[in-house]
Amino acid sequence: MGALMFGTYKTKAGRMSPYFFDAGRFSDGKSLWTLGKLYAKTILNSSLQFDGLFGPAYKGIPLVCATAIALSELGENYPYTYDRKEEKDHGEGGALIGAPLKRRILVTDDVISAGTSVRRSAKLIKNAGAELAGVVVSLDRQEKGQGELSAIQEVQQMYGVPVIAIARLEDMVRYLERARDMGLDSSAAEIVDNINAYREQYGTIAA
């Protein structure tokens, strides 16, 4: 699958990150089904109150579909919606596909880097007459946004809604540290050092 990659990757903020999470690598039925279950369980464990799901184009589209299916398997059936980045002027038209956005809407996305996707989602939800209930992501990078707060903290502060994550960067680092200490991965020590150096420059203590 290789969704979590290590090397040198440029982020939306222009930073050179030693790792990159690509939810697009969940590109077969079994892996996407597993990811959808993780989203569903994270959402249900959070006790978030919402009435529908929204997946921002493009990576949020398969995520919202997989999450809606997984929630239904757990006895929670929710309508879902996703958007086009280019508004359609024929057929059914418009920028939104799926259920009408009503009441409280939970956004499902992969990560929050610069907050661009969330701002677009919040605007679409508001313009439809609905309300942003929160955001759920795969990975909390625990990284500074435009200021000293993390990108996730900035979204929470801007919209006054919770942002929850399946995993946090510190969880990933702890896993790599165990692999390093147990000698399970010869590259783990270098990866941990690179991530810790990056966190010293751009990291935040809490999400």
Give an account of the 3D structure.
- The chain is of the alpha/beta class.
- It has a single domain, classed as Rossmann fold (3-Layer(aba) Sandwich).
- It contains six helices and eight strands, in the order E-E-H-E-H-E-E-E-H-E-H-E-H-H.
- It has a six-stranded mixed beta sheet, with helices on both faces. A two-stranded antiparallel ribbon has the order 1-2.
- A hairpin with a 5-residue loop joins strand 1 and strand 2.
- The two termini are 27 Å apart.
Q: Which structural class do you get from the secondary structure elements?
A: alpha/beta
Shape: globular
Rg, please? 18 Å
Task: For the largest sheet, list the strands in their spatial order.
Answer: 5-4-3-6-7-8
Tally of helical runs: 6
Domains (count): 1
CATH topology: Rossmann fold
CATH class call? Alpha Beta
Low-confidence stretches: none
What is the strand tally? 8
Please report the distance between the alpha carbons of the first and last residues.
Answer: 27 Å
Q: Note the beta-strand portion.
A: 25-35%
Give the H and E element order. EEHEHEEEHEHEHH
> For the report, how would you describe the main beta sheet?
6 strands, mixed
Q: What portion of residues is helical?
A: 25-40%
Look at the structure and give the mean pLDDT: 89
